[in-house]
Automatic annotation (TrEMBL):
It comes from the Bacteria. InterPro entries: SPW_0924-like (IPR048001). This is SPW_0924 family protein.
C-alpha cells in the first residue's frame, strides 16, 4: 500500500511539473539560423 501511495505522489509531482512548465510557456528569443556542429568538419 505504501508503494502505491508513493507512486501516486510521484506521478502527481511529475504531472504538476509538466503543467507548470506548459503554463509558463517558451522563453522569448530567437534561434540561430546556423546549425550546430557536433563534429569537427573534415578538411579536403
Amino acid at each position: 500500500m505504501r508503494a502505491l501511495i508513493a507512486a501516486a505522489a510521484g506521478l502527481a509531482a511529475a504531472l504538476a511539473l509538466v503543467l507548470t512548465i506548459t503554463a509558463v510557456g517558451t522563453p522569448e528569443g530567437r534561434t540561430s539560423p546556423q546549425p550546430l556542429l557536433t563534429t569537427v568538419p573534415a578538411h579536403p
